[in-house]
Amino acid sequence: MPAPEDFGVEMVGVPEGAAIELDLRLEAVLEGVLVTGTATVPLEGECARCLDPIASTFEAEFQELFVYPDTRSGGNAEDDELYLEDDLIDLEPLLRDAVVLALPLSPLCRDDCPGLCAECGIRLADAGPDHRHDVADPRWAALRDLAAGTAAETPERGSGSPGARGSSDRREGKQEG
Ligand SMILES: [Zn+2]
Ligand SMILES: [Zn+2]
């Protein structure tokens, strides 16, 4: 069957209209029809670390009872019970539970994907193990900001507060007038 729209999660899913292959067994039971099966779906998405495109297939197994509309399933009736509608079975909610809920929220192109360089954004798998940047220690960067701010702005506010709180929540940049 063709995949319905929006069949996936943010980073990976089944393209709309792509072929979902179903292997189904339908069994008549007392209350309705027991559906057991396997769905094989094509997946497309992006690696959560390096943003490379991902293309693979995913196999999901499922089993669900579709009850006749006039069947009362005794004391343990549940609200999310699935019903036969005019002798038809709507597989879509079943497939969404089996496939979409099983998809990884952070799919990877491969298990050990090294991702992107935090400094320049290059793909680390391409750049090689020697790729690095000579960056100043980030702890010194906060100090440098503090020194620059104190020199340019109001020196009387800068000396009073302890400097260890970092630079992001300083309020001394507020301008008057
Ligand atoms: Zn990757
Ligand atoms: Zn880099």
UniProtKB/TrEMBL annotation:
Residues 167-177 have a biased composition (Basic and acidic residues). Residues 146-177 are annotated as: Disordered. InterPro entries: YceD. Residues 146-166 have a biased composition (Low complexity). It comes from the Bacteria. This is DUF177 domain-containing protein. The lineage of its organism: Bacteria, Bacillati, Actinomycetota, Actinomycetes, Streptosporangiales.
